[in-house]
Design a protein that fits this description.
Strand 3, helix 3 and strand 4 form a beta-alpha-beta unit. By secondary structure, this protein is of the alpha/beta class. It has an 8-stranded mixed β-sheet with strand order 1-7-8-6-5-2-3-4, with helices on both faces. Helices cover 34% and strands 26% of the residues. This is Methyltransferase domain-containing protein.
Length: 250
Amino acid sequence: MRDFEELIDEAARADVTGWDFSWLDGRASEERPPWRYSRLLGEAVARARTAVDLDTGGGEVLAEAPLMAADPHATESWPANAARARELLGPRGVTVHETAPGAPLPFADASVDLVTARHPVKPAWSEIARVLAPGGEYLGQHVGPESAFELIEFFRGETTAAQRADRRPDLEADAAAEAGLEVTDLRSARLRMEFRDVGAVVWILRRCVWWVPDFSVERYRDRLRDMDARIRRHGSFVAHSTRHLLRARR
């Protein structure tokens, strides 16, 4: 394994825009949920007339769909990601809308028959219900509670009970139902994450900025040294993510 300084310097310079995690290939891994979200997304999009993919990132997940809806759209609030999504999805006829966090969706009432989201920031259930036509479907794979908390707590210390309860699938399903949607499928999985060098840790903390909001290499250099020593001693740092699949109908 290369030395500490080389690993963190490389990771600090690497591109972290979009939802392409290929930089981590061979350096980190995360077990995938059993329901194969990309396949479900592709099947749903192919059947839809008007479809919207929320928080699309750089469009990488939607781009895996073999066929697009007749009228496909995507939303993204981070300008760098929105630009990447336009480059990737534009040639396939997808209109990418750059939206402000928390703003209403730029679609008319009951105008969409499919809304999808992979790891949405915070599902706006009232807006999703508003834009879905009667019989329209929501399909999402969400980040669940306590995801990567072993890694987060390594840098930030013990988390609170409220932080651990955030993103519970039952509460999200209740919120969807309160907005007028019928939840038709809800499944959860706990998945193994493994980081095999400290550069992978630096990269993921730069990408998932909400995990350790004040993260920088200089601020956390001592903890990064501890992480490096731990990985060299044990071969990897293991954490766990949680995911849930949520399907609902208007």
